[in-house]
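ENTRY TYPE: paired fold submission
RECORD: A
CONTENT: sequence, then structure tokens
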Amino acid sequence: MEEKIRRAIQKAVSGGRRNYVIFPFGEQGRLFKRILNDEFGRQEALIIDSGKRDPESGVKRFEEVEPGFWEDCTLFIVSDHTEIYFELRSRALQYVPGKNVLDVLTNEWGTDDALQGILTRDRTRVFFNPVLRFHDENTVEALGNNTGNLVYVEALREQLDYHIEARLTREWVGDRLGRGSVVSVMPASNFVAEYAVWCESLLPILEQTDMRFTFVGLGAQAGFHETPRDVVAGLTEGQKRVFRAVGEHAAQIGVRGEFTAACMEEMGIRNVEVIGCPSFYQYKGEYPVLAEPAADRILYTADRSKKEIYALAGQHDSCLVCQNHEDSPGGAETIFYDFKKWNDFVSGSGFTFAFGSRFHGNMMALRNGIPALWIAHDWRTLELARYLGLPHLNYYDEKFRKIRYVEELLEYCDYGEVYRKYPGLERTYRNFIRKNFDENFRK
């Protein structure tokens, strides 16, 4: 964003523009002000933000400015939050002539569409992020009440070379996505589930565009007693129509494992590729050899009902990281709403072993070189562990039920299968991304 800001300012300066206005005045607006003031030696004429401000702060709202001012100004829309970009631009154009508005994201003057410069490419790559702008406990519901979803979304952000990151909304259909060839992906979790009726809201969006679109890491939510036919029977007709529509827009749908693939086939969807989870594919080629697990300092995850996991972890210096507010049995909890803070905590706390029933809690440990053992309690975890070769135990199996001491878990934390399978799995995943999104697998 810094380079886009510099180019926008240079464009305005070289064109003799004046009366610079910054809008909005969030984190990137403050960055713009610093670059404008310190690097270009120019002072803004005005700062605009929609929120309520102290009049002495110098930040105003549009309606507080004399109308005549806007005839000879340069208003910079300073944001790369593309999911609200149309809203910002629409707000600005209620007051400012289009010829005086410069979109910092595209460095275009007076365009009819804030993203025209990007969307008229021969091929536009869009990353639809379902948790974009998620940042605190007040929005935990946006993550399906599971902060673990931050992990696989961040993995895709690390891997993909995309032009635009946005939320999949009605603003992203029709003419805006019809001007060029658009390919897009959306990381998915347990969308194939009876409770995930929100998926029906995607249907009118998909029906209004011919863009290429696919899910990455789609999973089915089911207990061990359920079959793929049972899962599909529990879906609404609207949900089934959504998955079929995605199948029509995609070269392939990327699913977690064979169980989810069977659910797709039950709905008549056959252009499916089993890929596991994006969070697993941190490395190219070989998987690095991990340190031997030890019970010195243990990280664990579990939902509140998994009492055996809590009991085992309680025997040692163990740390519980919750993925929602219900995970903690005693009310005291460690929970993260920011990927970087979570990652920094795991990497810097000296953990020597991780285990538990939360797939992405364990994956966060593994991504930091900490050997982890998955305790699978339903199909969503088991199919991933099986496909990826991750060490795991079935929570309901006698083998796990007989364990009395946490040290016994260490013997099951064997990564031999991961080392053997990873090159082929990574190659399959890389080919899936290339086929469905872009030939450049990683940034």
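RECORD: B
CONTENT: sequence, then structure tokens
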Amino acid sequence: MYNYSMAKIIKETFIVLIGNFILAVAVGLFLLPNDILTGGIAGVAVLMSPFISIDTSVIVMFLSVGLLLVGWIFLGTKFMLTTCLSSIIYPFFLMIIERVIVPSNIDPLLASVYGGLLGGAGVGMVIKMGSSTGGMDIPPIIINKYTGFDLSKAVMIFDALTVGFGLMIYGLEQVLIGLISVYLTAFAISKILTYGGVRAKRVEIISDSFVLINERINHELERGTTIINSKGGYTNELKNVILVVVSEKEYQHLINIINEIDKEAFIIVSDATDVHGEGFSEIVRI
């Protein structure tokens, strides 16, 4: 057990380091050199730079420490300890990149796209390990903890507000370019957080022949089902709804079974990207 725990700690620490490095590359190579209005402490640093004659990496460091204290207050000591590494290593990575790598002159739109995607991937990797980059992802994590609000959407809202404040300073064009980065950052975070989940379909079936359909699902697909008692809102007729989760490979077989028995069956299908339990493999973490 001790060796397993140590191996897990080493793995998660390594992924947190990689995530912070990717974020630093995104910020130091694409966002800051091109004055891209984006979210996070990088975006705040860009907003503050016209008023404060301090290097942006130094601004990032002070903001990281301040937000770390906020996280400590609202999220507890454990969160603070796991985030300390990011709060120290991310500004360090950023200063190294700014001093060692000479940024190339690229189109601001491309800088916004690649900076947003890379930055979101880095932040997502860190958050998935139960930590934080020590930046502006801390307020969304606090909101997610106390309200359950979707984390990637909360990040996008905070980042969009940060970009919006730059309208008076940098103009509409810079804000529009920045919003592209904001959206792609949230997109990348969402994809990273759900990466490794078992891709499946959640299917609800309403049919008078639910007994036959249910039996064939149990025997041919070897999937468990749940029978839900329901009542028609218009007819007040009692109905039975079959709820089943199948893999993407099994989905077409399920549809064929339903059509063979009842072509008039009403079917509701939705994607399920994070499925646990018997019959589905364990989630593969990054």
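NOTES ON RECORD B: Residues 282-286 have pLDDT under 50 and may be disordered. DSSP finds eleven helices and four strands in the chain.
STATUS: closed
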